[in-house]
Fold these 2 entries.
Entry 1:
Amino acid sequence: MASKYLIIPALLAALAVPAFAQLGEDHRAERPQLSDLDTNSDGAITQAEANAPGLERFASADANGDGAVTFEEMEAARERRAAERRAKRFAAQDANGDGTLSADEFTNSRADKRFATIDANSDGTLSAEEIAAHEAQRAERGERRENRGRRGRRGERNGQR
């Protein structure tokens, strides 16, 4: 009985997070595909080709064209990119293209996918076992991320210098 009281809040949190995430800003930069970087289609990427997207972003940020980007120009460029990403997400959710999101459009795009992911037997309900299995998978993925050897604040790798 006590486990039932623990599972219900976990389920509600798992389904609510995607809806709130829709309101926030996605801070991950859109990364070009390797095939997009190979602009001359020779099957190899040169340093110039690898640098091209960054130089394009620099030129876009350099609003006055003076060859330098001020803090204000950089912030304005970031806000433009963020607004573009938000507009794309909104358009993707606006299934009927009417420029507004109904409650179904707002919640269905992510909540339905999350529910289907957790509902392992596709019976339209989430059992305690399915929720526990999903949480275990998430915990395992989290452990793998922690063990990737990302550098800490001071150049530390896995907690050591």
Note: Confidence is low (pLDDT under 50) at residues 8-28.
Entry 2:
Amino acid sequence: MLSKLRPFYLFLLLNLLTACGQDYNSNSFDASRYSASRATGTQQFINFYEVMSDKCISCHTGTHSHWADFITAPQWQTSWESNLVLPGDPSNSTIVSRLSGWSPGGDMPKNFPSISASDYQIIVDWINSL
């Protein structure tokens, strides 16, 4: 009896092992969804999107999961989320005001160290350029 089930167990084991090779949060399509190469626009925007992709979007899989689909500057500027990006006004843009270590009361990224000074400057410079 056991020898008859051996192919089934081997098949099951191989499927389990190959399913565990994910890079991102929930499924095998996440890597392409969060890829900064999807962003289009100026190099300054692409740099901004790379920071957001690496430091923010990859964790925001619930309420803010749609951020992964914001691959152009206008999508960030016209988001239904209040004050997400205010052109020329980074200090009042929600993205900046939520950053821990850079803004009073900031709490992002949650449970991770603050973003680097260079990443912070990329975000601020892009918003200032709008």
Note: Residues 16-29 have pLDDT under 50 and may be disordered.
